[in-house]
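Entry, Tuesday afternoon. Goal for today is a structural model of the target with flavin-adenine dinucleotide bound, before we commit to ordering more compound. Inputs were pasted exactly as handed over by J.K., no edits. I checked the ligand SMILES twice against the vendor sheet because last time a stereocentre got dropped in transcription.
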Amino acid sequence: MSLETCDLAIVGSGLTGISAAIAAYSKNPEHIIKIYGIPFDSHTAKKGEIENIPGIEKIVGVDYIQQMITQIQKLNEEFKKEGQPDKLEFINENVTVIAKNETHFQLISESRHIQAKAIIISTGLPELKHSLKGEDQFVHKGVSHCAVCDGALFRGRKVAIIGGGNFVARGALFLRKYCKKVTVISPNPSLECDNRFLKKFLSSPNVAFKYGVDLNTVEIYGSQTVEGIKFQEEEEIRELTVNAVFVELKDKPDLSILKDITLEVSHEGYVNTNATNATNIEGIFAAGSICGIRDYIPILMGDGYRAGIFASEYLDK
Ligand SMILES: Cc1cc2nc3c(=O)[nH]c(=O)nc-3n(C[C@H](O)[C@H](O)[C@H](O)COP(=O)(O)OP(=O)(O)OC[C@H]3O[C@@H](n4cnc5c(N)ncnc54)[C@H](O)[C@@H]3O)c2cc1C
């Protein structure tokens, strides 16, 4: 593996990371920028339609990511000189190690070893899997981690969706169109979603809610496929007959790729940044849901964009 050099490495190619790349390039197209990760593995690409981007009424997430990739490809053509490599390169590999020496950050992925003068970390939040009793046993047999991907398979059936916030609200609103009954099971005392979604639930007689459920008491059961779900509610064990359980829980940020670099985090584990998206380690910037930013696409994109601008300014200095 030969050692390559770049100015800025962006780790994570969801909409936050791609926005950062577009911003950094625009600020100074002389910088060589590498964008790591698999764009179609991002939450935006995997989670159905988006309908809150100002100026775009509705767009399928995967199409939106594709448009961003095309935009990057076009930017590469803008000032391209013959024989020179692209200024913005997607490396469709996950970074396994980020380390630091006196002058550079070292990034190792499956087939590349690249050193960079600055980094933006935008790896998002991992899905929380393998946490519920019965979850692993029934994957592809009634347990799914994506309501909008698999919901239509359970047309006319009773289903449950587990989680909280706008994603689960959107998932439940999607499921109600196909499923006979949808039960939202949330560990939170309320769904904690936008009122617009709550208003839609008012006209959804086939959606029921169970709040404040201790997820340690949840058990998905069945024989060949899912037949039901049990959980504790006010000292009693409740049992619901369902054919599918959509687990839409998110984990804490995963910073295990950092070797001998300690980023300052909040008590909830989100990366702390200042108003320029800089972390406590000089040359490392962070953006997006890994920083605990409110989980709205336009806000995350703005955060990525800002990180790109300030990382580029940092490099110019
Ligand atoms: C069900 C659901 C529906 C949603 N609907 C909406 C909506 O309608 N409107 C809205 O505003 N928001 C919505 N969201 C929220 C929004 O999609 C996410 O919060 C947003 O995608 C987060 O962006 P991100 O770039 O920070 O992280 P992600 O989208 O998670 O992207 C992170 C990227 O980093 C990559 N990565 C991870 N580890 C590494 C590594 N070691 N090396 C390299 N790359 C790595 C991942 O593969 C991924 O491509 C929804 C989310 C969900 C789950």
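The chain has a mean pLDDT of 95.
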